Structures are given as structure tokens and as C-alpha cells.
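Researcher: Structure prediction, please.
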Amino acid sequence: MEFRDSTSSHKKIWRSNRIRCKVQFDLPDEEARAKFWQAQVPNQLPLSESVDFVELAKQFDEISGRDIKNAVFQAVVAAAREDKPKKEKQVTQSHLVEAITEIIEANKMATQSEYTLTPVEGDVQLPPPPPDLPIEE
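Model: Predicted structure follows.
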């Protein structure tokens, strides 16, 4: 099967239900996390001297590369929104800590709700497919 774009691939996967298992990847170790942090920060990004990637890697151990990427993005947005002249805006350690903390909390909430079963009586209604998915009957 050839996928031409992400929209059609999502439709085909949803329709065919071909994903039958999950693949578990181990989380990166401290050294890898420090490298992930550094790799996600572009060279041209104004970065405070207070940023310590090794300390971030030590402080937050249950995170993935995706979590780190999202945290850097959130930290950049937070720094950009600060009420400072453009030349004074920098991403700081506190921006990164706040962003990754929010992501960790969101991950915990998603994991808890993903596995919570609620008993129901009567017929069970399945959620509808995504609105842009044509239903084949």
C-alpha cells in the first residue's frame, strides 16, 4: 500500500485497522536526553547562559525525545510572548523547566484517562470516525 499524504494514510489506517500492535521504545538515558535537549535548540535561538542541558537531563528522567522537542517549542513561544524588547528576549532554564513540567503533567493525565474504564448499562455507542473520513458501507 502506498500512502500519498498524511490525510489519506490516516483514512486508510482507520478504515483498514491494520495497526495491530504497539511497539515499545525505551526512554533515552541521561546522556541521550542531554543530547536531545541540545539538538532541539537551533543555533540562532537566543538562549540564556543559565540554560544547562545536563541539569535538565538529570532533573527530568521519564521523558522522550518528542517531549523534549515539544518543551523547547513551548519555551520558545513563552519567551517570545514576554513583554520585553525583541533584543532582550531569551529562552531561559525556567522557560524549559516550566514547559517540560507541563508536558509531563499532560502525559500523566492522558495516560490515566486512556486506561480508565467506565461501566455502562445497555447498548454501547462507539464514537464516530473522524468527520473527514468517508464511510464505506
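Model: Helices lie at 6-16, 30-40, 53-59, 65-81, 93-114.
Researcher: Thanks, that helps.
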